[in-house]
Each structure stands twice: as C-alpha cells, then as structure tokens.
Amino acid sequence: MIPTLEWTADGVRFLDQTKLPLEETYVLATSYRQVADVITTMVVRGAPAIGVSAAMGVALGVKESKATSISDLTTEFGAICNTLAATRPTAVNLFWAIAHMRDLFSALASKPGITREGIADALIKEAQVMYDEDIAACKTMGANGAELLPETGGVLTHCNAGALATCGYGTALGVIRAAVERGRAIHVYADETRPFLQGARLTAWELMHDGIPTTVLCDNMAASLMRQGKIKAVVVGADRIAANGDVANKIGTYNVAILAKEHGIPFYVAAPWSTIDTATPTGDGIPIEQRPEREVTHHAGKQLTPHGVGIENPAFDVTPAKYVTAIITERGVLRAPYAESLAELEAIPTAR
Ligand code: MRU
To answer: Is the CB of 159 under 6 A from ligand 1?
Structure first.
C-alpha cells in the first residue's frame, strides 16, 4: 500500500508529496508544530489525510508535553489544537478530527488519577483507530460506488483523491480502484490540476503504481475530450460538503461539473462522512483557502509571469449541488435532494 502517513515510535512519518513523482522521500515530524508545518506546506494534503495527520499531531503534542499537572496540560492542549486548526481552512475533516480529539481529551482529563502519559497513550491509540477507519471507509465507498462507473471507457478525475489524499485506497480513486478490481476496463483521464499539479504528479503516479491505465490532460482539455465521447463518467473527491449538497473541492472542479452536465455525463463525488458539514447550510458558507501567489507565478523555481501582474490563487471552488449526480459515502450513495438524503443518513447511528 502507498505509505501516505504513518505513526511511528519517533513521530509521524509522511511521504513527501511535494517531491513526487520524481523522488520518494519521507519527512519525520517529531513535534506537533512540525506536523502543522507539514500540513501547511502540503507535504501531506487531501482532506481525509490532513484530518488524520492533525489527530496524530494532537497526540504527538501531548506525548512530548512537559506539563506537570493536568491543568497545565489542558492549557497546552488548547494551544496544540489551535495551531493545528490554523493550518488549512477548507477541508472540514481537519476540524472534525481535532474536535474528536478535544472530546476525548476532555473525557480523559476529568477522570480521577489520570496521568499525562495515560492521556497521551489513549490519544495515540485513537489517532491510529482513525487511521484504520479512514482506510475502511474508503474501501466501503469503493464498494458502494464501483457499480456507478461504466463497464468500459474513460473516467475523468480532478486533483488527487486517492491513497495519497487519505490513509490508503482513496475516495474518488478508491471508487475507480474498486471498479477495476471488479473487472471494469476503465481508463482514467487525470486533469493536471494547475497550479499544484496534484493530477499530473500524484494521481498519475499512484495509478501507474497500481497499473491502472491513465492519461494526463491539461485542465483546459476536458471539454474537447467529452465532446469526442472519450469520457463516460467523472468522479472527484471533496473537501467539504454543505448541508444542501454543495461541494467544495480543488479549484477547477466546478468547471468540470458544468462541462459534464452540458455533455450529459454523470458527475460523482466520493467522500467520507467526515467531509460532510451539516452545520454549514450552503456552499456560500465554506471558507476558501487562498494559496501563495508564487504557486501560480513560478514553476519549478522558474518565473512564468511578468513581475507585478495581478494573481488569483484560490485553492478550492464550490460546485452547486444541482451539478452533482450522486454523492458516494461509506454510509451509502446519496441523490438529490441532498438536504433530505444527507439528513436521513446523518440520523443513522454509527458503530462508535
Ligand atoms: O489542496 P489539496 O491537495 O489538499 O486538495 C485536495 C482536494 O481537493 C481533494 O480532491 C480532496 O481533498 C478530496 S481527497 C480524498
């Protein structure tokens, strides 16, 4: 399996996604601040992966703490959580994971006789359970979504919603993997995904690793390929899904959704339940991260644009629910009206 991130006795080990596909190198984060840095600089990226990374960062922060009382540890814990929460604003999985760790910390800290070591051990264990659950959710999503993909033909994806964006297997790429495992002859078309090139660098690398036929296209080529009948379905991931089914995902997803609708091609979104934010009524309320201008002005250290020109670099966009054919989750496949189907599945109690 692709080793995206891993808890080790020395800290959290990350496959450095900024170096792929040419170098497979690892970064070992030995403090929670380093974990925060690894998330901000996108050494690790993708909504589910940054959620579990943050949970591991919280556990690491408590493990390395020198607090001598539970009261001091509680103050320090708040700062650890706030640092990790300030890394990236859009993917709700990050805040979901930190809230989960906060709840566990509060329950543990109020236990009589609890020690810092006892809390650290429980938080480390919990982060590892979240890691395992993320992989399990991806596999179930794959099983739920595989049948929606064509028996044969091209499937377009945008950004990287694969093993590299999760703890393993992937969301959108998990659905593709599951379809291929079930014998479907799928050819993946991966949008390059300017400016960070998650499609060209990461999706292409991970699908080639698994021997799944893949073609990379520039972001402005999708319409032409759709018109030629080369694309039978689109499947993408998500960073946050609002209560009405509006989907925030990598910048350019909205373009693809409109093109898919125009060409009568189904547009699927695959995401774990931790990506659904029923507290945000519509996509208008989803905070969109603005990334540094340099990601647009430069490539591989070389300047592409004239000095001083205006630059836009929103990292995500919002696709209105009306363009989404179905949302594939580990709890089932949702269809419009999403306000109702999301609320219905939200009400079903889970194992934990
Ligand atoms: O900026 P990134 O690379 O973290 O953005 C990632 C995406 O937009 C993915 O499509 C999304 O997180 C889904 S990952 C399973």
So the answer is: yes
19 is in an annotated binding site: no
- Quickly tell me which residue has 């080990």 as its tokens: 13
For CA atoms 275, 276, 278, 282, give the dihedral sign: positive
Residue 46 assigned as binding residue: yes
Q: How far is the CA of 225 from the centre of ligand 1 (A)?
A: 23
Residue type present at position 329? T
Q: What is the mean pLDDT of residues 338-352?
A: 84
**Could you tell me the two tokens for 102?**
């906060």
Give the chain's domains with CATH numbers: 5-139 (1.20.120.420), 142-346 (3.40.50.10470)
| Predicted confidence (pLDDT) at residue 349 exceeds the cutoff of 80 | no
Contacts of 226 (CB under 8 A, 6+ apart): 156, 259, 260, 262, 263, 265
Q: Say how far apart CA 56 and CA 98 lie, in whole Å.
A: 10
User: Does the model's ipTM exceed the 0.85 cut?
Assistant: yes
Write the pLDDT tens digit of every residue in 256-272: 999 999 999 999 999 99
Cα 106 to averaged position of ligand 1 atoms, centre (Å): 30
The model carries a pTM of 0.97
Q: Which residues are catalytic?
A: 239
315 near 250, Cβ under 8 Å? yes
Is residue 198 marked as binding? yes
pLDDT of residue 10: 96
Average pLDDT of the chain, as a whole number: 97
Pocket probe for ligand 1: among 18, 40, 45, the residue whose CB has the most ligand atoms within 8 Å is 45
- Is pLDDT of 58 > 80? yes
How far is Cα 112 from Cα 45, in angstroms, rounded to an integer?
38
Reading the block at residue 276, the tokens are: 């659904």
Residue 238 CB less than 6 A away from ligand 1: yes
- Cβ–ligand 1 contact at 162 (below 6 Å): no
Asked whether 198 and 159 are in contact (CB, 8 A), the reply is yes
